[in-house]
Amino acid sequence: MHVQIDLQTALLAASAEYEALRKEYGQYTIIPEQYAAWMREY
Q1: What is the pLDDT along the chain (42 residues), one digit of tens a residue?
Q2: Domain spans in the chain, listed from the N-terminal domain onward
C-alpha cells in the first residue's frame, strides 16, 4: 500500500520537489528486510 501511495506522490510532484522526494524515498526498500535476506540466499 505504501508503495502505491509513494508512487502516486512521485508522479504528481512538481519538478522542484524531486530532490526532496529522492532523499526521502532513498532510505526505504521496496522489499521488506525479512524477504530481502531470503532472496539473497536464493
Answers
A1: 567 787 888 888 999 999 998 888 888 777 777 787 787 777
A2: 2-41
